[in-house]
């Protein structure tokens, strides 16, 4: 069997869904499991409605709800030439009724808990899969009966040991040549049935989790680009498709901002040694990327990625000098505050590190100030150059840095592994930095 995941850009309207249905029909001999995201930017709309309700603007929230309802009913009507099956009509009415109830509750309390946000955000995938399953004539399975997660909301952690038997019970019996099974990406549920989400962009992760649980021959990520490119094409239009990526390269690129893949997508595929391909829904015969354990690209630089905004904290203490326990004490604070650190650079009496821009700094600074002074530099971005021979290509690091010219590099991290060189620059210079680095990449260093 194979898994085909279609992102929001691939199911944005009726015409897109017809194209997806055509691709699914072509895959029928391979016993496809179809994992869908919400239509277009539905999830953004649901987040907007939830935030409006939280602010007490129920009218605004309901306007957004009605807009989403109209778009989904329009897509269904176009797919069925106006004759929407009654069962689907009822399902859509129930789902939008559920959304209205949730929004009214949030507005009444003026409180949007993570649990409420997940319940609201889940509706996008629940709507798109009901419409698509009815249109393609496939079996529909609610992912929440299979994708077990912990009790965290918004960034739920899948319980892979529980998913495998659930997939065997709820998915495997339905899968077979000649028939499609449709389920949601992005959403799961706790053991006691509370709806959770895997975090934005999480449908790729769902696809990999289902693929690993079911022993898929391949996980296909269908999107609006011809595979993983040498850089984000919205920033560097000259970015080129990459035919092959190693799992390690793909994981680094996703972790450092290559939005085309959710950062956790690769892990289940690596464990199950399942190849992942990234393909263009509107150009199925075009170029695509294969990501697998067998791939050894051997390229100095394969691609660039960027992530931001991040905040750089520079923690200094004269007591740090020759103090073996200083770093332990420093990172204990971050661990206790649940703040993840991306890049670290150390000097004699100071340490610079990056954290996500939305991290609450006050409690962190309060703890750190007990034994050090802290400088804060917000509005930065991390740029990562990824390639299997970054460290072993003489002069490449210097070439990359010199290509940046007058763009100031505030931190450099290289060496933690063979394949990543990361730089910190000002966020407002990150796009230009990517364009300059990309000229090195395509200029023969790769
Ligand atoms: N290195 C990269 N290669 C390809 N696409 C990238 C890369 N970095 C960022 N992107 C962006 O990711 C987008 C695809 O991801 P996403 O918008 O989530 O699509 P989908 O709706 O299919 O999930 C592309 O349109 C592209 O703009
Ligand atoms: N719909 C969810 C999950 C997802 O992965 O979407 P997409 O495949 O369009 O990135 C989101 O927008 O985060």
From TrEMBL:
Q: What InterPro entries has UniProt attached to this entry?
A: AceGlu_kinase-like_sf, ACT-like_dom_sf, ACT_Aspartokinase, Asp/Glu/Uridylate_kinase, Asp_kin_monofn, Asp_kinase, AsparK_Bifunc_asparK/hSer_DH, Aspartate_kinase_CS
Under PROSITE patterns, the record lists: ASPARTOKINASE
Instruction: Give its E.C. classification number.
Output: 2.7.2.4
- UniProt keyword annotations, A-Z: Amino-acid biosynthesis, ATP-binding, Kinase, Nucleotide-binding, Transferase
Which reaction(s) does the protein catalyse, per the Swiss-Prot or TrEMBL entry? L-aspartate + ATP = 4-phospho-L-aspartate + ADP
Start and end of every Aspartokinase ACT domain? Answer: 383-439
* Domain Aspartate/glutamate/uridylate kinase per the UniProt entry, residue ranges: 1-279
Describe which pathway this protein belongs to, using the record's wording: Amino-acid biosynthesis; L-lysine biosynthesis via DAP pathway; (S)-tetrahydrodipicolinate from L-aspartate: step 1/4; Amino-acid biosynthesis; L-methionine biosynthesis via de novo pathway; L-homoserine from L-aspartate: step 1/3; Amino-acid biosynthesis; L-threonine biosynthesis; L-threonine from L-aspartate: step 1/5
Give the family from UniProt: Belongs to the aspartokinase family.
Task: Supply the name of the protein.
Answer: Aspartokinase
Tell me the classification of the organism that encodes this protein.
Answer: Bacteria, Pseudomonadati, Acidobacteriota, Holophagae, Holophagales
Q: Which gene encodes it?
A: lysC_1
